[in-house]
Amino acid sequence: MFSRPMFSRLAARALPVAALASALIAGPAAAHVTLAPNQAQAGTSIRTALRVPHGCDGSATTAIKVTIPEGVVGVKPMPKAGWTVATETAPYAKPYTSHGKTISEGVKSITWSGGNLPDAQYEEFIFIGSVQADAGGQNLAFPVLQTCEKGATDWSEMAMQGQPMPPRPAPLLKVAAAAAPAGVIKVGDLTLDAPWSRATPGGAKVAGGFLKITNTGTTPDRLVSATFEQSGRVEIHEMAMNNGVMTMRPLAAGLEIAPGKSVELAPGGFHLMFMDLKQPLKEGEKVKGVLVFQKAGKVDVTFDVRGLGASAPAAAGGHQH
Ligand SMILES: [Cu+2]
């Protein structure tokens, strides 16, 4: 029978690095400088605090400097009574867009200094920022240099697979994957963006179906067929100029989605053609359908029925074929 300490050692050895990092986050961290909260979702803004639970070997803390990792942008510190706050800016590895402007640099470190935090007391140093959308699934490290009346502590060590937990770990922020926007479906290498259709005027027997299909993989896929709950059958169409007249024609072989590319099915271009409608489509309805791809297979989708767009090409005449 294993004694408990022996079992713990065996278990610790088998932990992959991600689990080890999680253990650092979730474990009893009262003795370390940590972030609270220490979890965030990619693509969202954060408000978090560095928790400083003690000084350096009993000596009072006089300055805290935190380094902001790549993937966290738009950082602003909260001023703190009795402390002077300073920031350093530098270019981001990946610029981002905010309110239509490209932001290519920002705060990369914050220092609160000039205060005095006795070893017997605890304090929080607050800042806000945003986690970039592609930082999902990572544990971002925020190394901290804690300066005290006597000495300093460098909280910058990283947990490594197969190594014991470091005594001075950098505070970590565990970032969950960004939420898919409403109406976006991911299946295999394909992303299907917001399928929609359009209300039909009385008596119309056809309607268009639209969405954006993106292939994030390395091989082509092909939309080969589809079904729509309120129509007898569905064709895949393209619009093209023919003797100076815009006409639609069925794509017998379906529609290829090249790797790394997006194909937009939209009024005036490629579209699904819902034939033999059983009843008119009304604005606000949600109608189920199925898209069939050569590689990704069958995908259930829901088409949002939008209002009748008088000026949009797909609703304007070409449907009498
Ligand atoms: Cu058509």
Task: Describe what this molecule looks like in 3D.
The chain has 321 residues and is mainly β. It folds into 2 domains: 34-162 and 170-176, Immunoglobulin-like (Sandwich), CATH 2.60.40.2230; 184-315, Immunoglobulin-like. The chain contains 2 helices and 23 strands. The chain has helices at residues 4-14, 17-26; strands at residues 34-36, 39-41, 45-52, 61-67, 72-77, 84-98, 101-117, 123-131, 139-141, 144-148, 152-155, 172-176, 184-187, 190-198, 207-215, 221-228, 231-242, 245-250, 255-257, 262-265, 271-277, 286-293, 297-306. Strands 13, 14, 15, 16, 17, 18, 19, 20, 21, 22 and 23 form an 11-stranded mixed sheet that branches. It starts with a helix and ends in a 15-residue tail after the last strand. It binds copper (II) ion (CU).
The gist of it:
This protein has 2 helices and 23 strands.
List the helices and strands and how they pair.
Layout: H1 4-14, H2 17-26, E1 34-36, E2 39-41, E3 45-52, E4 61-67, E5 72-77, E6 84-98, E7 101-117, E8 123-131, E9 139-141, E10 144-148, E11 152-155, E12 172-176, E13 184-187, E14 190-198, E15 207-215, E16 221-228, E17 231-242, E18 245-250, E19 255-257, E20 262-265, E21 271-277, E22 286-293, E23 297-306
Parallel strand pairs: 2-12, 14-23
Antiparallel strand pairs: 1-3, 3-8, 4-7, 4-10, 5-8, 6-7, 9-12, 10-11, 13-14, 14-15, 15-20, 15-21, 16-19, 16-22, 17-18, 17-21, 22-23
The site of copper (II) ion (CU) has 4 residues, from strand 21.
